[in-house]
Amino acid sequence: MTVMLRDSPAATPADEERVVRKVFRRLIWFLFVLYIISYLDRINIGFAALSMNKDLGLSATMFGVANTVFYLGYVLCEVPSNMLMAKFGARVWIPRIMVTWGIASMATMFAEGPNSLYGLRLLVGIAEAGFLPGVLLYLTYWFPPSYRARATAVFMVAQPVTLMFGSTISGLILDMNGLWGIAGWRWLFLIEGVPAVLLGVVAYFYLADRPESVKWLNDSERSLLKARIGREQTVDHVEDRRSVWQVLASRDVLFLSVAYFGLVTTLNTIATWGPQIIREVMVAESLSYVGLISAIPPLFTAVAMPLWSMRSDRSGERVWNFILPVALAVVGWQLVSFVTAPEIRLLGLIFCTVGGFCGMVIFWAIPAAVLPSAARPAGIALISAAGLSASAVSPSVVGFLKDLTHSFTAGMLYVTVMLVVAAITIPLSRARRSV
What we know:
Elements: H1 13-56, H2 60-88, H3 90-107, H4 114-128, H5 131-142, H6 145-156, H7 158-174, H8 184-206, H9 219-231, H10 237-240, H11 244-248, H12 251-280, H13 287-294, H14 296-315, H15 319-338, H16 342-363, H17 367-370, H18 376-405, H19 409-425
Helix pairs in contact: 1-5, 1-6, 1-7, 1-8, 1-12, 2-3, 2-4, 2-5, 2-18, 3-4, 3-5, 3-8, 5-18, 6-14, 6-16, 7-13, 7-14, 12-13, 12-16, 12-18, 12-19, 14-16, 15-16, 15-19, 18-19
């Protein structure tokens, strides 16, 4: 059916929704798959640690440093990467990111000690930098604000889905230990790096930079989509006259960066230390069983994220829809910190995972609504980089505290404080203006 232009008497909200759904079906599933591969290559070191740490002689602090250097490379290259994507387009830049990070991730199998592991993880971080903020920027080109939480949620469900299936798959790959004389954790980096390279090639032929350049939308649909996106922009003209540097130094970017730092502290801790937190109370079980149990919290999260984002989109409210799941995660970390019963600790991890990820999808509906379009590439990248700096800091902090106290409790209290900071900071921004 040909959708009529918005100015035509025949154009209706139902016509607009059909166009948005068409874009959704075309793009989101593919971006979802790409993010699964990205997130798997980012977190698989957490599963590799179950046997790699012993082989390479890594303490908890050394393992934390290996994670830190990955995110250090990622953070340093985040803003430049997003600016280059705005220049070259997603069709070129996203495949470039994928192919280079896939090769670097596979090379991690050749680590022989702490120093070589640090160097290889730094390369993976540099190569992967810009993927997440690049896709988040890309979504603003294709979806009106009133659909972005849902689009972001479905895209970001890839994270808990990766934790869910990645934990199971990674556990099975680790059980390949000794095949052809190769350690299981080396197989893990090799096997899980290949899809990034292959899908990077596919992405070059599948993605398009903007709606204006695609053939799968007709002229009427392109015009209608552009009109709908423009009509829902909420940033006023005064703000649009600010320079990019003025926007980056603004209160909104500062508070959103601090909030995302606090939130990502939880998300990174779940991905990095989750398997070891479970292993601590299941020392007699096999690695594949630990991987299976680790899949339970992401299973609940994958169901909760789309439902919670739909609720927020329909109400148009962001602040409380962010604070409530964050509060759930705070409760979860207290259960993980102070209860050693496996069932209660698992319940705590479910609360942490559901709360952290539901808070994240609501969070990412906010920046595009409060930042002027000219500053969006740099603004989104800077906020993302601030959050990922938490991924650089938190593994070392949690690892150091575990070595110091021989328990995860102190590290979990640190994570809890960062979540409280995130919940307090969001209302200080103009998040209430997001749609």
